[in-house]
Amino acid sequence: MSKKLTVREMRKALVFGSEDEREAVKQELAILASSDITEVMSWDEQGRVSLKDAKDVPAHVRRGIKKVKVTPTRMGNAIEVEMHDKVSALRMLAKHHGLLEPGLEKTDRPSVLGINLHGPMVTEYEEKDGEDESGD
Q: What is the pLDDT of residue 1?
């Protein structure tokens, strides 16, 4: 898609748009629903986070990024990356495909629609007050 659509515009296109518009919206929602933050950032064993080079992030993953915020601090830059909401994209796709329709027979819809999201492990560190490692 050439321009980013709002959620309202996507819903409208899914209902009233041409076949091409509906297909483009479905593809965009699928991209948002399948974007993976590990293709944007990486974590090492000590819990340090680093951003990948923009050239190393695939175009479809970049489209899944909602916001990048860089805040200068005394310890270096604090970087926040926010991805678009996967659950909203999946819900909109499921609704479009009739998976959330209350009138359908139970056999016509999936019994479970599961979404497993895994984030990084959080490690907490304690700051020392100017003491060196040997305790001298």
A: 46
Q: What is the pTM of this model?
A: 0.56
Q: Long-range CB contacts (< 8 A, 24+ apart) of 33-40? A: 33/86, 33/89, 33/90, 33/93, 34/64, 35/60, 35/61, 35/63, 35/64, 35/65, 35/83, 35/84, 35/86, 36/61, 36/64, 37/81, 37/83, 37/119, 40/65, 40/81, 40/83
User: Domain map of the chain by residue range?
Assistant: 1-35+85-102, 37-83
Coil, strand or helix at 75: coil
What is the pLDDT averaged over residues 100-114?
Answer: 58
Using the Cα atoms of residue 70, residue 74, residue 76 and residue 81 in order, give the sign of their dihedral.
Answer: negative
Instruction: Work out the number of other CB atoms within 10 angstroms of the CB of residue 35.
Output: 21
CA-to-CA distance for 25 and 88, rounded, in angstroms? 13
Beta carbons of 48 and 23 less than 8 angstroms apart = no
How large is the C-alpha radius of gyration of the chain? Answer: 21
